[in-house]
Each structure stands twice: as structure tokens, then as C-alpha cells.
Model the fold of this input.
Amino acid sequence: MKKLLLIFFAMISLSSYADVECAGVPSAVFAGMHGPSANNTSYWVTIPNVATLRLGNFDNEFAKARFTLALSAFMSGKSVTIRYYAHTSCTQASQDKAIPTQMGIR
Done:
């Protein structure tokens, strides 16, 4: 019985993490932000009515791929979809400067 309860609570705690999707047509794509901080070495995308979202550091290959997707969506006027694991909102992901776990163009 104890093992069953342990498994039950483990499943609840693992499923308590949220999965948030932030989507829209980018209005701006940045390589670095002006100012004296680590943000200067990151890629960013702004999605109107959603947030300005960090895509990762310059030295990361996945961040370069996410930047390319964001730039392609920006240039073509297509919607970009960015997903975060363990965040409850796009605002929280932006404030935490979280790195996306999935990204695509629609």
C-alpha cells in the first residue's frame, strides 16, 4: 500500500509541471540586448501581446536554430510557436529568461 501511495504522489508531482505555448507573428528579432549584462550574448524574439522571449546564448547550436526560425517567421510574416516546459505562462517564461524546449513555424 505504501508503494502504491508513493507512486501516486510521484505521478501527481511530475504532472504538476505545466507546458505553456507562446505563439504569434514576431514583430522583432534580436541578437543581443543593449546594456551591461549577460543578455548581450543571447538571441531574443518579440511576439506582440505575448512577450519578449529569450531563445538562448550565441554559443549554443540550438539557440542559433531557434534564432533562424524566429528570423524566418519574422521575414515571412508567419506565426512562430515557442513551447516551455515547467512554466505556467509566457510572461513567467519571459521573466525567468527561460530557454524554449520546442519551437516551430506555422
Q: What stands out?
A: Confidence is low (pLDDT under 50) at residues 8-14.
